[in-house]
Amino acid sequence: MKVIVLGAGLVGAPMAIDLAKDAEFKVSAADISTKAFSRLNENNVTCLQHDLSKPETVKQLIVGYDMVINAVPGFMGFQTLKAIIEAGKNTVDISFFPEDPFELSELALKQNVIAIMDCGVAPGMMHILTGYVDHLLDETITSLTYVGGLPEIREYPYEYKAVFSPIDVVEEYTRPARYIENHKEVIREALSDTELLNFPGIGTLESFNSDGIRSLGKTIKAANIKEKTLRYPGHVALVKVLRETGFFSQNVIDVKGVKVKPMDMTAKLLFPIWELKPGERDLTIMKVIVEGSKDGKQLRYTYDLLDRYDEETQTHSMARTTGYTATCALRMIANGLYTRKGLSVPEYIGKHPDCVEYLLAELAARGVNYVETIEEI
Fold this sequence. Notes:
The protein is α/β, with parallel strands linked by helices and 377 residues long. 32% of the residues lie in helices and 29% in strands. The chain has a 7-stranded parallel sheet, sandwiched between helices. The protein has a 7-stranded mixed sheet with strand order 10-11-12-7-15-16-18, with helices on one face. The longest helix has 18 residues, at 317-334.
């Protein structure tokens, strides 16, 4: 089976390598940057240099492939996923685009493809696990997720490294956060409602509102649904200063006769500081809490994840937790375990306990372990 990964960045490259370990797959990876190509070639991945920002290029590129993983940055994710579906290819997507994914539902059904979107860690496993528990409960009351990707070593001033596309990180800091409270949608500015929380093995982290519930607001009938991002304490205050000063603005300004987008300048200055260098260790921490009723009992399901950089394979934790979810989902389709045609948001997978069991087992085999706790409240 021929598989192509679109995007060979921090997450895309490890996904291609993971798939190439299976003899049943012949794997290619495409990117405009050749930065990861030497490592990919060493792991039996065919590398193709292409500008994936052009949908027609994408369509032509994937003609000879059976399945596609979409790992391009979020700003071009929707158009890329649409091109993949139009080409009639089964696909798993992790691009985290801002557009409404359900706009592609009719197209995916018409093309008779399986298209799983947002299939990473968050969004991704947080949605799958929420959907799974919602499927078990008679009534879901609350879904709350805390999640963050962080460097193990804290360095002044930001105490942060971008464990996925820096452009998508900035989106977390600027895009208004949507959540459900008492069955109503609430919109707050990103970085709002900070709170300090203690996590075993990590210590104190600060959380803030971010736009991470994605499709859950439409698919899960719960009174309260919220996702908050985690950072080391103090990071939010620094980023707020940048945002409020205008460094993340896309509006053109005049600097001594030169037209400049502040965000372009910020990218040149800030992103190199945030770059996660090869060998620099990161961690991923997530807590998914789902509460509701079952047979007259009030229950709380909690899933805890603490994953760290893999020394043996030299793979960053965010690449493992995000990328391996997608590669295991692709295997799930290839093996005929998940057969739902059309567009699938990840919580749809949660409605299939055998698929959830498969994903958790495959992730555990790769050292990504979710710890389940069930308690009566």
